[in-house]
Design brief:
Order of helices and strands of chain B: EEEEEEEEEEE
Number of strands of chain A: 11
Radius of gyration of chain A: 13 Å
Oligomer: heterodimer
Radius of gyration of chain B: 13 Å
Helix content of chain B: under 10%
Strand content of chain A: over 45%
Number of strands of chain B: 11
Chain lengths: 123, 106
């Protein structure tokens, strides 16, 4: 069965960096686009970023563009999110999620989600 | 950015009753609209995509309709496990955007 396991969350000061990872299993990782979606405490869902099956195409929410970088490593079935210049408003649970498509266009349907990892940005 | 709105914010219903949730997009998203629900402490779960196609394993009591800017999720007979927050999401335009959610409670 599909498994998505996020790691790397924690407490970080504003302006610092953090790298999230997501180990996947149960499906052919190299066939699917992948997402990061976040949820601030007590709030709704916010889509963050998407990467195509081969890593060549990416797109980001305006709120993170230029600060966050999504990447993937097919050799060990891992999705990553490098987060730089963190702000207090980046505090959230970050979910790794699988798309239904290989490319990012119309790739917004998300059938599989991880359990999430909490990132707290605070001084 | 496409702004998604949902109504009502909270819907109080009893088990066995019908629930109708609305979602509106600030401009047409065609049928590129998905519905998810999320129970406390859990990850979201995909219910509907393409405005009206049920995802794998989703019971027939869940149905979606609409196109363009107006969408509806109907739960024909609420079960106890359906009490959750429901989100709509458009995926026709970048960035993908979610609505603020409708909480379905007793």
């Amino acid at each position: 069965q599909v498994q998505l396991m996020e790691s790397g969350g924690g407490v970080v000061q504003p302006g610092r960096s953090l790298r999230l990872s997501c180990a996947v299993s149960g499906f052919t990782f190299s066939n699917y686009a992948m997402h990061w979606v976040r949820q601030a405490p007590g709030k709704g869902l916010e889509w963050v970023a998407i990467i195509s099956y081969d890593g060549t195409n990416k797109n980001y929410a305006d709120s993170v563009k230029g600060r966050f970088t999504i990447s993937r490593d097919k050799s060990n079935n891992t999705l990553n999110l490098q987060m730089n210049s963190l702000r207090t408003e980046d505090t959230a649970v970050y979910y790794c999620a699988r798309a239904t498509t290989s490319e990012i266009t119309f790739g917004g349907v998300i059938p599989d989600w991880g359990q999430g990892t909490l990132v707290t940005v605070s001084s | 950015e496409i702004v998604m709105t949902q109504s009502p914010a909270t819907l109080s219903v009893s088990p066995g009753e019908r629930a109708t949730l609305s979602c509106r997009a600030s401009q047409s998203v065609s049928i590129y609209l998905a519905w998810y629900h999320q129970k406390p402490g859990q990850s979201p779960r995909l219910l509907i995509y393409g405005a009206s196609t049920r995802a794998a394993g989703i019971p027939a009591r869940f149905s979606g309709s609409g196109s363009g800017t107006e969408f509806t999720l109907t739960i024909s007979s609420l079960q106890s496990e359906d009490f959750a927050v429901y989100y709509c999401q458009q995926y026709n335009y970048w960035p993908f955007t979610f609505g603020p959610g409708t909480k379905v409670d007793i």
